[in-house]
Design goal:
It is a single chain. By secondary structure, the protein is mainly α. The protein folds into two domains: about 40 residues, Rubrerythrin, domain 2; about 140 residues. The protein contains six helices and three strands, in the order βββαααααα. A three-stranded antiparallel sheet has the order 2-1-3.
Length: about 230
């Protein structure tokens, strides 16, 4: 049986042929390489045959072509040494897993406080929900940035369904958290007072929670690879 390695996430598949799609990151079949051949010992080179020395015949020089101006290529931040060290340190010290735990912990608590405040008309919990939502909104830009760095460093910026879903969910959580936080600052009574926009407010909270859960589930697949 051969071993095939996904060049995007490092998943190892055992079989005669690679899978049509990586079960971890969703990379296509073309991204797999046969590592069983790499592990096999290389054959010893055959002794070189002795041949007569060749005589080099000088060639006539070709006329020099007119030099064309070379335009400098734009430098990517990941190739710029000023940023490369910072990006490597963010990945080395797990910047994305650390930052993503902040909104992942506060977001469900904020929604729980909103539900309890709506059911029992507790203004203190409504205030706590507003503060928690504000921390989530302020943290999400850092979560997106650290996730982008990890995506480039660990997965070479591969475009697969898994990463597309994670990016989309991160953007949804960012936009909805800021929208809800501003809404609560402008109209904090939306939680405890019946009004026409109250249903929309709760629906947006559920959408945000679902997007965060989906991003976390795909992130778990990339980490645990099961």
């Amino acid at each position: 049986m051969k071993k095939w390695k996904c060049t995007v996430c490092g998943y190892i598949h055992t079989g005669d042929v690679p899978p049509d799609k990586c079960p971890v990151c969703g990379a296509p079949k073309s991204k797999f390489i046969d590592v069983s051949e790499l592990e096999a010992p290389a054959p010893k080179p055959a002794p070189a045959a002795v041949s007569e020395p060749e005589v080099d015949v000088p060639e006539a020089p070709e006329p020099a072509a007119a030099a064309k101006p070379v335009e400098p290529e734009p430098v990517s931040p990941f190739k710029d040494s000023r940023y490369r060290t910072m990006f490597d340190m963010m990945t080395r010290f797990h910047g994305h897993p650390i930052t993503v735990h902040i909104p992942n912990g506060l977001l469900p608590v904020s929604i729980l406080f909103i539900l309890l405040s709506a059911l029992f008309t507790i203004k203190g919990m409504a205030n706590a929900a507003t503060y928690n939502m504000g921390v989530v909104a302020l943290t999400m830009p850092l979560v997106l940035f650290s996730g982008w760095v990890d995506w480039q460093n660990r997965f070479s910026g591969a475009i697969t369904n898994v990463f597309i879903v994670k990016i989309a969910c991160g953007i949804i959580v960012t936009v909805t958290s800021w929208f809800l936080f501003i809404w609560l600052l402008v109209n904090p009574a939306v939680i405890t007072t019946p009004q026409p926009s109250r249903v929309a407010f709760f629906m947006i909270n559920l959408i945000m929670l679902g997007a965060a859960g989906t991003a976390g589930w795909y992130g778990g697949k990339l980490v645990f690879r099961d």
